[in-house]
TrEMBL record:
InterPro entries for the chain: Endonuclease-I, His-Me_finger_sf, YhcR_N
Region described as Disordered: spans on this chain: 159-184
Keyword Hydrolase attributed: yes
Signal peptide segment: 1-27
SUPFAM superfamilies to which the protein is assigned, alphabetical: His-Me finger endonucleases
Residue intervals of the Endonuclease YhcR N-terminal domain: 56-160
Record field: compositional bias (Low complexity): 161-184
Keywords attached to this entry: Hydrolase, Nuclease, Signal
Protein's name in the database: Endonuclease YhcR N-terminal domain-containing protein
One matching Pfam family: DUF6359
Length: 417
């Protein structure tokens, strides 16, 4: 099973007063129950980096996107939600900060986008802590792009400037309890009970077992009716919402004609060549209504950022080897791909589907681009429409769930950050 198991980073770097703690969703390992005192260095951090006396300015950090670890000092100026969008109020979640050398900066070109790993979100996320706006902070992590913008990823420490770079533990329990705590689901004690506490390939294997048990497999004809239910327009019960284009269209206006909607396979069915026989090709978790023409433009392209505008699909881009959906469904697309990878593991007459780093997969049972899909999962968390869809599929149609809608952090737990 070609699962990429994140390198274990059960790491707490303790150098004098400096403490850098990786998020618990990454820190958990098969060594469940072992104390989190095994000291190893995070992948890109060095003792020098976390104790460095002179932090970089934001301007220097923007000009030094080398992947190296560094500490950067800047003022919190908002939350990035897309490459060129930083919100300054009404923060949607705790996933990212934008920092700048000036507390009054409004140009995103002079901002650094800082990823907030799950363990730090309750203390350093703007939705929970809007009073952070304007504060000067020191952040330590890898100088590399985030939201396709100069950034810092795999952040290992946050501190107010002028204080020791000691980061309070997000919660006292996360160091020793082998359970990701950033998301809870009503199904944790039932449907997911046997998966809780697992990471990496063990989590992949257990989720595969869970979501492949007791499943009702639809026929391709039944998918029409199912999509009318799962993707119903919340404002018009006679319509569905097309996934990429976002257009509301009559449920009855389906078929193969221009401007009708049809059944889009988000995991393109040629990638693994599963067709539309009962199985991956009729798994409604990744089937969505889409405009016939837009569906044709997407074709079997892998997913990636960039390209030119797509007709009839506002916010969508495509080029010769990839397709990018509108911002509002980037996470939905990513979580559908991760669902398919865990649901379909071979041994049942179908290929073992997995995401990879390519945008030239053709008919291989892979779909890219993994790094971008992971980014989309973070930047577009599940909303009410996506959650309702998962519930309707579980209650009415297939009786299995997409674990990554219930626990988006499980993408990181299985596929790394
Ligand atoms: Ca979404
Ligand atoms: Ca698989």
């Amino acid at each position: 099973m070609p699962v990429v198991i994140p390198r274990r980073r059960l790491a707490a770097v303790v150098t004098g007063l400096a403490v850098a703690l990786v998020p618990p969703s990454l820190a958990l390992s098969s060594a469940a129950g072992s104390p989190a005192t095994a000291l190893t260095l995070p992948h890109a951090a060095t003792a020098q980096a976390v104790t460095a006396a002179a932090p970089l300015t934001v301007s220097q950090a923007i000009g030094s996107q080398t992947g190296q670890s560094a500490t950067v000092r800047g003022h919190v100026v908002g939350q990035p939600t897309a490459t060129s969008t930083v919100v300054r109020s009404g923060f949607p979640n705790d996933y990212a900060l934008a920092i700048a050398d000036s507390a009054s900066e409004t140009s995103t070109s002079r901002m650094l986008y800082v990823q907030i790993p799950s363990a730090f979100r309750s203390s350093w996320g703007l939705k929970t802590n809007p009073s952070l706006m304007g504060r000067q902070v020191d952040v330590t992590g890898s100088l590399s792009a985030y939201f396709s913008h100069p950034g810092m990823t795999a952040t290992t420490a946050f501190a107010f400037s002028g204080t020791p770079t000691t980061t309070p533990l997000p919660t006292t329990s996360t160091r020793t309890t082998p359970v990701p705590t950033s998301t809870t689901s009503p199904y944790d004690s039932t449907y997911y009970a046997s998966a809780i506490g697992k990471t990496g390939s063990a989590l992949h294997t257990e989720l595969h077992r869970i979501i492949s048990s007791g499943v009702t497999t639809l026929t391709y004809d039944q998918v029409w009716t199912a999509l009318g239910d799962t993707d119903q327009d919340p404002n018009n019960a006679g319509n569905v919402i097309e996934v990429y284009s976002g257009r509301s269209i009559a449920k009855s206006d389906n078929g193969g004609g221009v401007d009708q909607w049809n059944r889009e396979h988000v995991w393109a069915k040629s990638h693994g060549d599963f067709g539309t026989v009962n199985g991956p090709g009729t798994d409604v978790h990744h089937l969505r209504p889409e405009d016939v023409t837009v569906n044709s433009t997407r074709g079997n392209l892998d997913f990636d950022n960039g390209g030119s505008a797509v007709a009839q699909c506002t916010g969508c881009l495509s080029d010769s080897d990839s397709f990018q959906p509108r911002d509002a469904v980037k996470g939905d697309v990513a979580r559908m791909i991760f669902y398919m990878a865990v649901r379909w593991d071979g041994g049942d007459g179908f290929a073992d589907l997995e995401p990879n780093s390519s945008v030239a997969n053709g008919t291989a049972p892979y779909l890219g681009k993994l790094s971008v899909l992971k980014q989309w999962n973070l930047q577009d968390p599940p909303d009410a429409f996506e959650k309702r869809r998962n519930q309707v599929i579980y209650d009415t149609w297939q009786h299995n769930r997409n674990p990554f809608i219930d626990h988006p952090e499980w993408v990181t737990a299985i596929y790394g950050s």
